[in-house]
What does this fold into?
Amino acid sequence: MADIHILMTNAPYGTIDAEEGLEFALAATNYGHEVRMFFIGDGILQVLKGQQVPDGEKSLLKRLSALPFFDIEECYVSAPCLAQKGYSTDDIGLADISVVSNTELMTKLRQCDHTVTF
Amino acid sequence: MKTTTVLITSPPHDNARINEAQAFLHAAIAQGVNIDHVFFYQAGVYNANSALQTTAIYKQWCELAQNHHIPLLVCVTAAAKRGVFSEAEAAELGVAQATLLPPFEQVGIADFFTRLHDCERLVQF
It folds into this structure.
């Protein structure tokens, strides 16, 4: 079993990266690995409330909300990245996500066997 | 033996990344590192597009597979979405032309995660 940290760096819907990152995470946990998710840069947009889901697409936020059912219980979002885009913790639409400083994020991010970036 | 797996998520025309990946693989092999396989996911599946078979990058992938026995495993789901599929899939889809040929092989992502249990290091390009 490996500890896999998944770095989400892209906005949802505009490109396929958020969706494929999530599918990768779900497959990892399905095949016996431990997964933690980290949202930075444009990736913070994935965890915000009030997403306008394009026609024919599934709500990424709803899918992220279901992560605990797939044994993915630890999610982290960068506080500086939120602030830089003018968002606050009130804008976060995901329960049980930890809002962390850069130092905390980098410390936590390194505590794994493998990191994969989407 | 401890192994290294290489994950390719960049397309072939991201020259810097793919040239680096191939250089990394050659250097690793020269130093006796055990490369378990190369897994192509996301836009990385475009590296397997057989329409590119006359390009240097494609030939380099083939050389790694043929001379150094490194499996080139392509995620079937990510590839199908992007029009990269084997003869068998082409037949199923009713499409005339397959775009994935040996030495590239189609696998499910399950294979990647199963092999990852025995892998010491994962490097992404």
Observations:
- The interface with chain B takes residues 1-2, 4, 16-17, 20, 24, 27-28, 30-33, 113-118 of chain A (CB under 8 Å).
- Strands of chain A lie at 3-8, 34-39, 74-78, 97-100, 114-117.
- The mean pLDDT of chain A is 96.
- Helices of chain A lie at 17-30, 60-65, 79-84, 102-110.
